[in-house]
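Let's practice the habit of predicting before peeking. Look at the sequence and jot down your guess about where helices and strands might fall. Then scroll down.
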Amino acid sequence: MVGALAAGLLCAAGLAAPAAAAPTAPAAPAPAEGLALTPPMGFNNWNSTHCRAEFDEAMVKGIADIFVEKGLKDAGYEYVNLDDCWALPSRDANGKLVPDPVRFPNGIKAVADYVHSKGLKMGIYTSAGTKTCNTAGFPGSLGHEYSDAQQFADWGVDYLKYDNCNNQGVDAKLRYTTMRDALRATGRAIVYSICEWGENKPWEWAADVGQLWRTTGDISDNWGSMLSILKQNLPLAPHAGPGRWNDPDMLEVGNGGMTDTEYRSHFSMWAIMAAPLLIGSDLRSAGEETFEILGNREVIAVDQDPLGKQGTVVSSQSGRWVVAKEMRDGSRAVALFNESGTAQRITTSADAVGLPAADTYALRDLWQHRSYNTAGTISATVPAHGTVLLRVAADPKSVQHPPAVELGLNGSPLVEAGKTASLTSTVTDLGRTTAKRVSVSLTGPSGWSVKATSPTTSPALSTGRSLRTKWAVTAPQGTPPGSYGLTLRASYRSPSGVRADSALPLTATVVVAPPSGMSGLGDLPWLSAANGWGPAERNTSNGESDAGDGNPITIGEVVYDTGIGVHADSTVEYYAGGACETVTAQVGVDDEEGADGTVAFEIWADGTRAASTGVLTNAIPAQALTADVTGAQVIRLVVTDGGDGVTSDHGDWAEARLTC
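Done guessing? Here is the structure:
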């Protein structure tokens, strides 16, 4: 009975190769060898245009032109890919896909020919369902696999992104394998991108189906989304390799929702994960910083290393991540990634990242483009949300380079205007050789007082030795709350007299002491707010996309006037200044997502988790949560995804209050 039902479902879905569509083609010829032996690099329009009118032939051709003009083609970017909305909502009388004549008046083949004329390749999109994901209802390929694949091949398509919407409940392996066979039957080498969102763990079964597979839901242009996807993709390293890549979704670099520091982290971590690098910003309006990030060939070389290893996690304590990637030449790429909202010292060793024992190692900073030597310690103070990306190798000749030094700044970066904060800088020699004539300086915004209260120079620092300098930092009375830049700089010379300079950008945050009594957290200024989708909202639900798009906070049909609406993974931080005692809230999943969503709530007092819930669902009414935060400088409200991914995870901190 089960077999008959499955056979009926196959016929209903049209998954068998139609005889009329491919009467002489073999059902599943041998795949083209050598496809995507390194992670695909290119462009996809979706993150920057979605289905808006600017997605058209002119845009696609313009991106191809920019790839050539800006050196991106030479850096390795190859595919110019069309996402959803390129077709008309209906097929023609013969069941063929029809390009939108307004967007693509000359058809898809003409666009592909233009892209090919630039020495590039072109990709296209459809879904393993009856319709694509856009609400306009463009035709999907379920039941039309062989016909559509042949159309793509006839147009000169080199890459197919195959989505998962409107799949009618048909088995994922069956749907994606059928399109694999259809693509092979065309005889054209087409890279096959399985966009199944990780729902059925394609990393366990798709290595002989496609060349890459999405491991998560869609990325959005904010820190919380990028971080959540990163954490889901990192554990899947054993499944990656040449021609079989974990795909954590496209790049958001340049779209404006993150800082340049965060975008460098995004790009660095995608590279060390050997992820596909598909640009998601409209390069026609991109700034030079975007091109500088996307065009960093030393970072790209980490992603494209032919050994094909995905980086693995060495350590991740308290948001201080060390990820190491074995390279074909025996070196290691090492990412020191700071998840937190303040600068952190992140340290590891050559031995911990898998390098053989040696007296001296060469250490190359891939963003500074500078080389140093190290005795084996790999360490840096990494700015908030920043990444230091290094390439490290055993190399006795590396002593010709200056010794690596680590800059650090100890003390709270939270400053109340008019009050003096005490900070201590460190300059530490990590190298095998001596750092000579060492000097250090600390500078702040115009009008700030930054004074050294202990020596700022040292004649020499041997391996492991440090210069420690105390500083008195004062923001003028009346300085508005917010983040302000400090820069710690060190200058020194190698034993041969080569000068080296190092700089560490830091952030001091001017804060206001919380008011006495009980205050609604939805009305107090926060230090930072990271959110999985859209911004955290004050006194409304998350809403998900744009600022102000939330609804009244509602948990279990009970409406609350105040609070904070977030989407997992989320962290909202407040300054308490050691003057507060308790945080209280009614917490739960907001009703706006129906029955979907699973979340867990945590309240942190500095580095201590002061209160938490178990996993909550939409079926669970609001839960009272109270935390003792006595003496804490910083309070963090954290919402995690409940362990099942972030889809529809709208969490509410209803009636959230702080008592000081």
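How did you do? The radius of gyration is 27 Å.
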